[in-house]
Each structure stands twice: as structure tokens, then as C-alpha cells.
Automatic annotation (TrEMBL):
PANTHER family per record: PHAGE INTEGRASE-RELATED, TYROSINE RECOMBINASE XERC
Assigned protein family: Belongs to the 'phage' integrase family. XerD subfamily.
Protein name: Tyrosine recombinase XerC
Gene Ontology biological process terms in this record: cell division; chromosome segregation; DNA transposition
Subcellular location per the Swiss-Prot or TrEMBL entry: Cytoplasm
Domain of life of the native organism: Bacteria
Function: Site-specific tyrosine recombinase, which acts by catalyzing the cutting and rejoining of the recombining DNA molecules. The XerC-XerD complex is essential to convert dimers of the bacterial chromosome into monomers to permit their segregation at cell division. It also contributes to the segregational stability of plasmids.
Organism: Irregularibacter muris
Pfam family, one: Phage_integrase
KW Cell division (keyword) present: yes
């Protein structure tokens, strides 16, 4: 089954007719390629042989591999889009995703940092240097806002309102206003005045976070920063930007924030994505009870 031509046509359809963002198109194409690789491994070598059963089996296969619920849901959305496209172009006669519900998959409790680990990580940068000031501001903003990597690196200077202590996030039509605390505001202010404004070479550059050459910081650059300070802080966890986002949400819930407010700050379209932090908080309390109560 040579599916290359179908994938190419699907990608063209997503870009030109649906006008989806390059990032979204890339995700859809990657998901469909991986699905077809699975089909070939299962000896399914023709489009018409792909049934609802195979798609459910694939979703369960992703679950067994430890894929996140959000990733599995996105894969199903990608396959729905693909088969609706193939049906509309008469490449197939039946859409195998029709009326297909996502298998009920237990949401994993996200791995997070403790408050002590957060303190150690955020105090690791050397703020006597321009790089250290930038890195501290990045870490403080990640933990203070729960922003995704792509959202953080796309921030402009004008997106930060230091006086009113808020950050405006408008990434891929996910627009929201996020309050930010005094410590993060102070770190941002010091970075902008004492570091960023001395690093940039182009006065018209509006990127908030820049590398030491004065250009917009990249995803890879941000990951390297996190990895460096994880090692420096001697924290025995594989810390990722998303783990900091999880920690932001969990610590808010544990300190009494309502789930709707946390959902809005995280930019979740589905509240079930946010409710996992309630489960994580309850799980933590249960573990503390088991360790502490003499008759637990």
C-alpha cells in the first residue's frame, strides 16, 4: 500500500483549503504516517481494509506505549480528518472513523516538582550575569504562568504588563490573560533592563526572550536551559518545560485555586484536561495519610 500520494494530497488540503497552521499540519501528517506504518506492520495493505476495529486497536496500541491521553485524542482527530478527506475525494467508500468514540483511557497523573525542588531550580541561575538574569526570568515566568514552550518563546515585550502584573498570551488563536506574581515580575524587569536591552542588536526586535546573540530563543535553546539548571540544581528528575507547567497547575489546585480558573490560565479547551490535577492532588493527600496515620 503506497500511501505517500494520499498523505501529500491530505497535507495540501489541510494547508490550502482548511488553512491550518504549519505546526498543526505537521502534527496531522506525522500522526497519519505513523498510523499507516502500524497498518503495514499488521499486514493491512489496502485502504478499504482499514476498519473501525483497526483504528481502535491502533489507539490502544498508543496507550500501551504510554502515550498521553491528549496525544491519543489528537491522533484520532488526525485520522478522522484523513478519512473524511479520503471519502470526499472518493478514495474510499466508507469512513471507518464514523461514530467512533475515543476508548476510555485512564489519564495518567502528571509528574511534577515539589515546592522545594521548584525553589532550588528557580534559584540556580547566577543573576550576576546577563545570561543568568535571562534564565532566571524564563524559569520564573514558566512556573508563574504555566505557559507552553511555544507560547513562551513567542512572547513579545509588549505582551508583558509589568505595572498590572499580567501577561497576554495569544498563540495560535488561544488568547488569554494570565496574572503573574511579584517575584516573576521582578525577575522580568531586571532581565529586560539589565540583560535583554544590552544583548539585542536590533532596536526593532520585539522578542521578549532572546539568545546571547540577540535573536529569538528557540525551543531547543529553552530545553537546553532547563536541562542545564536541572543538573546544576542536582535534581534527580528529568525536568521538562511541561513538567514545570504541570507543577504550576498542581500547586495552584493544592493551594485552593478553583479548577475553572486554572483551566483558563492553562488555556485548556476541555476541563477534563485540568481535572487531572485534582486527581493528582487527592492522590498526594492519600499518600500522606497512609504514611502519617497510625491506623491507615
Amino acid at each position: 500500500m503506497d500511501v505517500t500520494i494520499y498523505i501529500e494530497k491530505f497535507g495540501l488540503y489541510l494547508r490550502e483549503e482548511k488553512e491550518l497552521s504549519p505546526h498543526t499540519v505537521e502534527s496531522y501528517i506525522r500522526d497519519t504516517k505513523q498510523f499507516f506504518e502500524y497498518c503495514l506492520a499488521e499486514k493491512v495493505n489496502h485502504l478499504e481494509r482499514i476498519t473501525k476495529t483497526y483504528i481502535i486497536s491502533y489507539l490502544l496500541f498508543l496507550q500501551k506505549k504510554g502515550r498521553a491521553t491528549s496525544t491519543i485524542s489528537r491522533n484520532l482527530a488526525s485520522l478522522r480528518g484523513l478519512f473524511q478527506f479520503l471519502l470526499s475525494r472518493n478514495y474510499i467508500t466508507v469512513d471507518p472513523t464514523l461514530n467512533l468514540e475515543t476508548p476510555k483511557i485512564e489519564r495518567k497523573i502528571p509528574q511534577t516538582l515539589t515546592l522545594q525542588e521548584v525553589e532550588i531550580l528557580l534559584s540556580a541561575p547566577n543573576t550576576n550575569t546577563k545570561k543568568g538574569l535571562r534564565d532566571q526570568a524564563i524559569l520564573e515566568v514558566l512556573y508563574a504562568t504555566g505557559l507552553r514552550v511555544s507560547e513562551l518563546i513567542d512572547l513579545n515585550v509588549q505582551d508583558v504588563d509589568l505595572e498590572n502584573r499580567i501577561i497576554y498570551c495569544n498563540h495560535e488563536n488561544n488568547e488569554r490573560i494570565i496574572p503573574i506574581g511579584n517575584i516573576a515580575i521582578d525577575a522580568l524587569e531586571k532581565y529586560i533592563i539589565e540583560s535583554r536591552n544590552k544583548i539585542i542588536n536590533d532596536a526593532e526586535n520585539t522578542d521578549l526572550f532572546v539568545n546571547m546573540q540577540g535573536h529569538k530563543i528557540t525551543r531547543q535553546g529553552l530545553w537546553k536551559i532547563i536541562k542545564y539548571y536541572t543538573q546544576k540544581a542536582n535534581i534527580n528528575k528529568p525536568i521538562t518545560p511541561h513538567m514545570i507547567r504541570h507543577s504550576f497547575a498542581l500547586h495552584l489546585i493544592e493551594n485552593g485555586a478553583d479548577v475553572r480558573s486554572v483551566q483558563e490560565m492553562l488555556g485548556h479547551s476541555d476541563i477534563s484536561s485540568t481535572q487531572v490535577y485534582i486527581k493528582a492532588s487527592t492522590f498526594k493527600i492519600s499518600e500522606i495519610y497512609k504514611r502519617a496515620h497510625p491506623r491507615a
